[in-house]
């Protein structure tokens, strides 16, 4: 099972469809059981969609990092 940290690291690949089928399945499985990551991914997608509408294909790096920090605050402490 993927950890939340791993999922977040791979979230942009998942959204961009740059992922092997095996990995996608792992991500989907994690999303199935993890509400916070579902919420994070949804937010990330919205942000990317919003940004790319504004100025074509510039990756909203700063925004991603901001979201990531906000998100990490909401994560429960967990052992790896
Ligand atoms: Zn998670």
Share of helix, binned: over 70%
Bound molecules: zinc ion
Distance between the termini: 11 Å
Report the structural category: mainly alpha
What's the assembly state of these chains? Answer: single chain
Total of domains = 1
Could you report the average pLDDT, rounded to the nearest whole number? 85
Q: Can you describe this structure in just a few lines?
A:
By secondary structure, the chain is mainly alpha-helical. Helix content is 75%, strand content 0%. The protein is built from 4 helices and no strands.
Task: Give an overview in words.
Helix content is 75%, strand content 0%. It is mainly α. It has one domain. The protein binds zinc ion. Zinc ion binds next to helix 1 and helix 3. Zinc ion binds at residues 4, 7, 30, 34, 36-37.
